[in-house]
C-alpha cells in the first residue's frame, strides 16, 4: 500500500466516532429500572440481547398467562445485538456450506425451518409494529479472485443438483456489476429471499417494547450473579434483588455462562465495522445498488457490506481478533489499526467513492464456537436451558434458538428438539495457551489460503476432517 494512499484512507476516519452507529441513535429508549427486592416468576430470562428478548416474547405469545421476568446486566441491545451488520439470514447453520458439511442428512429440514424462522421474524415485526427498517433484499456473495469465481460456480452447481438452490442465482461479472458496481467483482451468488437487512439496535429495542406490552417484567442494569436450585425451581441473585423462578432461560451469548460447563464451548472473537456518511445521489448512482442487497466477499477473511436506510455504507469484517485469555473487555471494542485496514479495503472495492468519510467505527464480541452454529442444552434437571455459539450469524437464528430453549424447558419433543444439530454439541476449546496458539495457527493458515488460490494446508485439512474450525 503506497504511503500516500494510507494517509488518504486514514483521513477518511478522522471524524469517526468509536461507537456503534446503530446505538448512537436519538431514539434510544431509556432503560427500565433495575431490580430491587425479591420477585418470583414462572420463567426468568437472563440476557437482553435477541436471544433473551425472543425467548421472553415467544414465551408470552405461546402462553399469555405465563409470568415472565427478563434481567439484563447492562442495557437491552448494548452488546452484539446492537452493533452487528444487520444481516438477518434464514440460515440456522452459519451458511449452507457449513450446514451441509455438518448435517447433510437434515439439511433440507434445517433450510425449511430457517426459511420459516425468517418469515416468522417478518410477521412478528408487523404484528408488533416494530420499525427496524427490515428490507427483504437478499444477499450476494461476490468473488474477487478468479479461483473464487470458479468455486462459486461449482458450489452453485452442487447445491442446484441437491435441490438446495431455490431462489439462488449465479451471476457472472457483468451481471454482478449490474447490481453493485465494483471493479473487484468477478462473479456472484445471489440469494434473493433468504436474507433481510435491518437496523439491529431498533430490532432489539422494538422487541423490548413488544415484551413490555405483553407484560414481561424487564429489569436493566441487573446482572444475574448466581444461579442455584431452590425447591422445585431456581434462585438467582442480583446486586439489589433476587428472583425465584420455575424455569430459567440463558441468553447470555459470549459472556461467562451461569452454567460453568458451557463456558469452554465459545470464545469471544472481535469483529469490527465502519459506517460512512450518507452517500449523495451521485455517489450512490456511481455504485448502482438499486436493489439494496447485502453483500459479502468469498475469502476466508471476508468483508460484509450493505446500505443503511439513509444510504450510508456499512463495511465490516476481515480481521477476526481473538484476545489471549478469551475475555470480553470494553478495551477490545475499539481497534484503530483494523479501522485503517478496513478503510483501505473499502476504497479498493469502491474507488469511485474516494473522498467519502466514515462517521462511526466500532467492534464487538462474537460468540464463536468450533462448529460456527448454535448449540443448545439444559442443566439442573431440565429447569435451565441455554443457547449460544451463533458465531456471527445470530440475528435471525437467535429466534430459532429461543424456540428451542422454550421447547426444552417445556420438556416437549418437537421437530426442533429432535434435530441432530440440537442434540449434539461442538467440541470445546482447550484452555490457554492452547486455545490462543490453535486459533493463531488457524488464522495464519486461513490468510495463507486466501493468498494462495484458496489452497488449504495440512493444518486446515486436518481441522476440516475433525469438523473443527475458526470463523467470525
Ligand atoms: C460486529 C458484529 C457484527 C455482526 N454481524 C452480524 C450480522 O450481520 N448478521 C448476523 O446474523 N449476526 C451478526 N453478528 C452476531 C449477532 O450480533 C449475534 O449472534 C447476536 O446478536 C447474539 O444475540 P444474543 O442475544 O445471543 O447476544 P447479545 O446481544 O450479546 O446479548 C447477550 C446479553 O446478555 C447479557 N448478559 C450476559 N450475562 C448476563 C448476566 N449474568 N446477567 C444479566 N445479563 C447478562 C449481556 O449484557 C447482553 O446484553 C455480529 C456480531 C458482531 C459483534
How would you characterize this protein structure?
With 472 residues, the protein is of the alpha/beta class. Among the domains are: 31-138 and 193-265 and 370-429, 3-Layer(bba) Sandwich (FAD/NAD(P)-binding domain), CATH 3.50.50.60; 434-465. It has 13 helices and 18 strands. It has helices at 3-11, 50-62, 96-102, 107-127, 146-161, 173-179, 200-213, 281-287, 336-349, 397-410, 420-423, 434-451, 458-466; strands at residues 37-46, 68-71, 87-89, 139-143, 168-172, 187-191, 195-197, 217-219, 226-230, 233-238, 241-250, 267-276, 294-297, 303-307, 313-317, 358-368, 375-379, 384-388. The strands form 3 sheets. Strands 1, 2, 8, 9, 10, 11, 17 and 18 form an 8-stranded mixed sheet that branches. It has an 8-stranded mixed sheet with strand order 5-6-4-13-14-15-12-16. Helix 1 (3-11) packs across helix 9 (336-349), helix 2 packs parallel to helix 7 and helix 2 (50-62) crosses helix 10 (397-410). The radius of gyration is 22 Å and the shape is globular. The protein starts with a helix and ends in a 6-residue tail after the last helix. The model has no long low-confidence stretch (mean pLDDT 95). The site of flavin-adenine dinucleotide (FAD) has 41 residues, from helix 2, strand 3, strand 12 and strand 16. Flavin-adenine dinucleotide (FAD) is lined by residues 46-52, 71-74, 78-81, 83-87, 89, 223-224, 251-253, 255, 258, 271, 273, 316, 364-366, 390, 392-396, 398.
